[in-house]
Amino acid sequence: MIDLVALDMAGTTIDDHGSVYVALQNSVEETGASVAEADLQKWMGADKVTAITALMELGGQEPDAGRVAAAFERFREILAASYRDHPPVALPGVTDALRELRGRGIRIALTTGFSDDVALPLLASVGWTIGPGDEHLLDAVVTTSQVRAGRPAPYLIHHAMELTGATDVRRVLAAGDTVVDLLAAHNAGVIGVGVLTGALTRAQLAEHPHDHILQSVAALPGLTVTRD
Fold it and tell me: For residue 55, what pLDDT band results from cuts at 50, 70 and 90?
């Protein structure tokens, strides 16, 4: 029995049309750093300040605090413009899947590498709300504004457990479309599920610790949970 499902946002439950990838790459490249595709994939899903810092250093630029802060501000500007021009939408079948899971008594949390000021407008754009009762879809949302470190640290997942009253990591499932999503689930000790609605292939996700790989979060209601 699963008590809590903790899900990533962009690329996992919400289709942001690849805007996060573009904003992260462009904001780092504007510092003069080169961004290799493999490095971008590695750091997608992480706290964006941490990701920018790592990508700047990997791309040959000194990630001092001022330059990182400026790059993060550019990331937010680029992302906001992209969301304005191409509004995010829920991925196909995800809303119905979450309602079905919640109807079974499973709590639903979203976790994200975004801070509050990025995550909450994204959530509002798809009309998902938080609270008890059937009128809401979510029980909790955890952003990097609320924890000491983002993925691959386990804190987003563990704080989602704290907020929803889940106490047994063996009864928690975490799903996401990036490498750091799987690593965070592994580090948290929960059931880790990779989904193929992001940029990574099944083979790329399978290289990292996981219990299941699904086509989409929409398939979660039909999953028979096992652990490797």
Answer: very high
Of 221, 225, 226, which is closest to residue 93 (Cα–Cα)?
221
Residue 226 has pLDDT above 80, yes or no: no
Query: How far, rounded to the nearest angstrom, does the alpha carbon of residue 44 sit from its chain's CA centroid?
Result: 9
- The contacts of residue 116 (CB under 8 Å, 6+ apart) are 143, 145, 146
pLDDT, residue 44, reads: 82
Percent share of the chain, pLDDT over 70: 100
pLDDT above 90 (res 149): yes
Identify the residue whose tokens are 């304005």. 84
Q: Where on the phi/psi map is residue 115: left (φ > 0), alpha (ψ -120 to 50), or beta? A: beta
Count Cβ atoms below 10 Å from residue 211 Cβ, excluding itself.
19
Distance in angstroms (rounded) separating the CA atoms of residues 19 and 36: 17
- Burial class of residue 186, CB neighbours in 10 A (0-12, 13-18, 19+): middle
CA distance linking residue 159 with residue 141, whole number of Å: 9
pTM (predicted TM-score): 0.86
| Residue 179 structure tokens | 């490498």
DSSP-based three-state secondary structure for 195:
strand
* Gap between the Cα atoms of 216 and 214, Å rounded: 5
146 within 8 A of 108, measured Cβ to Cβ: no
